[in-house]
User: Which sequence fits this backbone?
């Protein structure tokens, strides 16, 4: 009887051992399948990061206006957007998108509440925020633009993200055509120009390596600050060198306002131009060719509204030559 009892125990042990082995094998097989799962989409973003998606992203948060208006032009909606005026997108379409902060002030709680698959953010402002954003379970794509060519890259990347590469190609073809139109309408005798980025407490000269600087050159302007050295943390812009600017004698001065009270910044800038003897000696100030540019087109990346920025800049330069 005792031998029979021991025999039963021995069989039970063998059974449990076999089950355990099968269980481990099943777990290993499952883990291997998960690790072997291939990406259905691989994107290299504008920060040089390679981002892989195992599934097509359906719920997208866009933290800049430029990304959002490109996504909508591609036929896609977003579940989250920046807490600012959404220029270039119809108001009705935005009612379904939650406001989740902006590139300077992310609201992780609100972003998480949208349950995003992908978050599109700024390559300049949000690279440091990638770990926090990815902790929400979403993939992060970084974009940005310091030239019209960059806007085309941005459009191409977003076209890949939402599986609309053909639409992206069409949008980029339209941008190229708008560049050609601007070139044809640009004044033949190029206009000496100064681009100033005005912010509370400081002013900078925009260099040709900035988006606005690129627009200026394509619209028929000569950037009088082209040889200035960019500031350390803001390389597309330089400190204003009044002596060099006066020597270059700009025929027109453009002011782009970023942040703060726009009317207050504009008033302070124009007052300085007209009261300062050095500035007052320039052709631009003498002839009252001081132009305040729309913030939604020049204070930030306008995305597909770059055609409006090009047309406006070309028109203002032509007015100097009339």
Assistant:
């Amino acid at each position: 009887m005792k031998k029979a009892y021991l025999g039963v125990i021995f069989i039970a042990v063998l059974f449990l051992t076999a089950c355990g082995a099968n269980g481990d094998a099943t777990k290993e097989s499952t883990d291997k399948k998960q690790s072997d799962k291939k990406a259905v989409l691989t994107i290299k973003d504008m920060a040089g990061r390679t981002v892989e998606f195992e599934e097509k992203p359906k719920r997208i948060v866009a933290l800049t206006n430029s990304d959002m208006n490109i996504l909508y032009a591609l036929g896609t909606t977003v579940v989250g957007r920046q807490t600012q005026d959404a220029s270039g997108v119809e108001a009705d379409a935005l009612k379904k998108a939650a406001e989740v902060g902006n590139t300077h002030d992310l609201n992780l709680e609100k972003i998480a509440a949208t349950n995003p698959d992908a978050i599109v953010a700024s390559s300049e402002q949000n690279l440091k925020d990638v770990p926090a954003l990815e902790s929400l379970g979403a993939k992060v794509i970084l974009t940005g633009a310091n030239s019209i060519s960059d806007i085309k890259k941005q459009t191409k990347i977003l076209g890949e993200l939402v599986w609309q590469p053909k639409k992206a190609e069409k949008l980029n073809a339209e941008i190229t055509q708008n560049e050609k139109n601007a070139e044809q309408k640009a004044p033949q005798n190029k206009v000496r120009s100064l681009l100033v980025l005005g912010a509370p407490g400081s002013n900078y000269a925009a260099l040709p390596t900035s988006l606005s600087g690129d627009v200026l050159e394509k619209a028929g302007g000569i950037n009088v600050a082209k040889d200035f050295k960019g500031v350390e943390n803001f390389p597309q812009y330089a400190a204003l060198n009044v002596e060099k600017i006066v020597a270059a004698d700009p025929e027109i001065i453009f002011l782009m306002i970023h942040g703060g009270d726009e009317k207050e910044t504009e008033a302070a800038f124009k007052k300085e131009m007209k009261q300062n003897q050095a500035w007052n000696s320039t052709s631009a100030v003498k002839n009252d060719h001081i132009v305040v540019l729309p913030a939604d087109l020049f204070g930030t990346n306008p995305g597909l509204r770059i055609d409006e920025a090009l047309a406006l800049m070309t028109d203002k330069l032509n007015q100097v030559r009339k």
Notes: Residues 1-18, 29-35 have pLDDT under 50 and may be disordered.
